[in-house]
Amino acid sequence: MTDKHEPPAEAPGIKDADGTADGAANGDAPGTQVHVTRKGVSRRVPRRYTSPAMAERRQRIIDCAHRLMGEAGEQGLTIARLCREAEVAPRTIYRLFTDKDGVIFATVADRMREVRDHIARQNRTYTLDTVFDELDWMVSEMERDTEYARVAIGFNFSLNPRRAEIRELRSVAYNRFRNWLDLQIAAGNTRGDLDLERLAQRHVVGEFLVYRRWAIGVTQSDECRLELRCSFLQSAAVVLTGAAQEDALRQLGEYHARLGMSEIGARPSANRAERDAGEEFEGRA
Known about the structure:
This protein has helices at residues 52-72, 79-86, 90-97, 100-122, 128-144, 146-156, 163-186, 196-215, 221-239, 242-259, 272-276; strands spanning 33-36, 42-45. The protein is mainly alpha-helical. The chain has 2 domains: 1-110, Homeodomain-like (Arc Repressor Mutant, subunit A), CATH 1.10.10; 124-259, no CATH class. A two-stranded antiparallel ribbon has the order 1-2. Strand 1 and strand 2 (42-45) form a beta hairpin. Helix 1 (52-72) crosses helix 2 (79-86), helix 1 (52-72) packs across helix 4 and helix 1 crosses helix 6 (146-156). It is globular, with a radius of gyration of 23 Å.
């Protein structure tokens, strides 16, 4: 059995663990949509199945995929191994998820819904302290399930993302900034001449760049926590006015100091010729 995106031919009579022939009584909803995979190939969007049997199989596959990716990252997940360990026929996976990417996206989306629901149940007021506590907790969760977190972060940067799953992946970061922003708007601390929703969406992109640095080993967890705070304060300073803006900038300066100032700091660079020639890739005084 190979781990290709196309469903493989199967011998007749392959059944799932419950003895049901694959696809039988599946509650299949009509209609077919198409998405583009990471390799740029068009694939159908999986239909929704409503029967209890298919829902149970779907959850079994997702739980198994999460475990396998947690053990060895994306490379640890193959369709063949997933079929063996989740005790399902290959065609069940292809019907429910279309391909391996679909399994990973679904697993990531389900996990982010769990995280979002966990945070929402706390019903906290989004002061900066709340924001920083939540960011610290996110990094702790990434540490707890490192290989899986790297897979999830990597999918945010897919060249051909599946929009619904990417929205789920980014939802926690977006809700955090939006909840804080709404509090600041109500307090009269924000600018009225900017598209604050556009800036909230742009902030999420910046936050995931910080996660990406952690995922590829550029930063360790403690530095990642500080960079996440800097990223949030930098976005905050753009939307705030008056004393609230000055406080955000003051805290940003403090976190820059904790991260360690660059050699040039706030001085103008004197190496434009070297940078233009590609000989250097950072400013030098």
